[in-house]
């Protein structure tokens, strides 16, 4: 619109250059001659008086509505020029002025701008049309004004034709900082960009996010509204409503203007470049124009308060454009600025840390509801759009948490009550092993100790039990690579050594009391104690060695639990672990078969029966272990294996040695050589009697002989013959079995039974 007005104006000038403009007397507000004329544009009147009908000819209408504040600004300009003329600042040069009333109307201001552009020293007020205005000398050298941004933009576009300097005291529209469109424009007030920025910062500082905007329906108001809306959105401030009022209001209580009067007019030179680089001071503050033609001033923050029915305006702070801060002069104004936070201006209650915002479907982002952050999520600021995820491997967070907490590292600690109980049981088992070793050492030459396989075998078995109990200590405490590799290997080798020795004992018992010659020959070939123990144990050593080489157990952090990190030993290879346990189970099963076949031996010598019970305890414990170990999770997983080791170890130890210790300590009368020989003789006689009864047949033939051939004494003759035959057969069988028994006893004694 402004550009269209300019084009029409120039068109009229070209067509009527021969007719001078006859200006009404009230069009000129004030004028004074001088060597250098400075123009002025002030809205001394509020508006123009329009007729009800459409205008029938182009003419300037009369102005109405006197504005005292703008009139005072006009007087301030005149006073400043007179002060310069009466000083020695410009010797020999007098400043003149030509001030026009814009009547707050663009058309009136443009008419005044045409007079400013008229040719210097020309009798007629003519604006010449030229392609190059470099040598053109207008009557006015610089223009002060106008006040309203809309008027200033229209005037500035015309003055830019001759790059006539224009300094505004009140126009703050951000677009005026564009030096491409307004190259000769300068101003002594900051741009609306900084004004809206200061407003947005004040709102943010007061912690408001739900506001309304009232603006004027002109270029100034619309541009300020757009700029403020952008900066408000950047600070997450929502605009509840926008109200546009007419541009010019007569009620002074509604229209509030912040007037900045020009402190000094520098008239030393009139070139635009010089004016842009000028610097002046006032009250200790230095002022200059920046690259956009804006003066480096700030804003006053004023507070409107109603006191006793009267409205008062108090300055509480200053806004520094360069530092982007609010400056207070005393503690009272500082408290006033801080108290703005007490004014609630929010669409929704702010979400505290530990919560996040959820849109309620409103078009405003400031209207929302607060939801608690879920587990393992957190928010550490107010009004966060979403909760942040904790690092699940190292941290966790409860519901509605404002921070993440480091996961606690857990393992079966030495201070744990269950660990203490298991250690106590292991130490008790070690004490049992030592006590049994002492008892057997003090009774080396007794039949019970000798019948246990000899001193060395007993010591080897006790050593295996000792190592089994000791291996449980490697399952407790913070897992290390060494303990992870040692605990399973130590348990597997020591338990295999123990079962191998018990296997030899079972085989020896079966060999000693077996009366079947074929079975004896087979057991004799099989019974090689030392090689078998070394082979059985060596196979387990090979299994464990291959396990350690190709898939060794290692420390692993289990982070699958939400709040803790389980520090545990990862077995490396489930196949190797299962192979180790399966090999022990095979040896135990063979031992169980041998012991079960010898379960009916003499009571004082029936060690096989107790070995059978021990192997049953082992099988029950480890069969139970498999599902429990597979389903147990957490730091108590090693405790499951410790418990199974203790159960199987205690079961075999007690079944193998406790009965013998009972005989040694409580039944010493049976722990003699004669008692053992008597027991063996009784067992052998019982076996021989069974053999005799199997060879003697009292069939029906003898009865028939007795009935058909009775003797003279009244008794059957056949009965006497049968008795003789039976006595002869019994004598023969006794002699044969006595020989076998004597040989068997001799063999058993050789076997240290």
Task: Show the helix and strand layout.
Blueprint: H1 2-15, E1 28-32, E2 36-42, E3 45-48, E4 63-66, H2 68-85, E5 95-101, H3 106-116, E6 142-144, H4 149-159, E7 166-168, E8 185-187, H5 192-205, E9 210-216, H6 219-234, E10 238-245, H7 272-277, E11 279-282, E12 285-288, E13 299-307, E14 310-320, E15 325-327, H8 331-338, E16 355-359, E17 368-372, E18 377-378, E19 388-389, E20 395-396, E21 405-406, E22 408-410, H9 417-442, H10 447-451, H11 455-471, H12 481-512, H13 517-526, H14 529-550, E23 554-558, E24 564-570, H15 574-597, H16 607-631, H17 637-666, H18 673-695, H19 700-708, H20 717-750
Parallel strand pairs: 2-5, 2-6, 6-7, 7-8, 9-10, 22-24
Antiparallel strand pairs: 1-5, 3-4, 11-12, 13-14, 14-15, 16-17, 18-19, 20-21, 23-24
Helix pairs in contact: 1-4, 3-4, 5-6, 9-11, 9-17, 11-12, 11-17, 12-13, 12-14, 12-15, 14-15, 15-16, 16-17, 18-20, 19-20
Descriptive terms for the model:
single chain; 753 residues; alpha/beta; 24 strands; disordered C terminus
What report would you give on this structure?
The protein is α/β, with parallel strands linked by helices and about 750 residues long. The chain is about 45% helix and about 15% strand. The protein is built from 20 helices and 24 strands. The strands form nine sheets. Strands 1-5-2-6-7-8 form a six-stranded mixed beta sheet, sandwiched between helices. A three-stranded antiparallel beta sheet has the order 13-14-15. Strands 22-24-23 form a three-stranded mixed beta sheet. Mean pLDDT is about 75; it is low at about 1-25, about 250-270 and about 690-753.
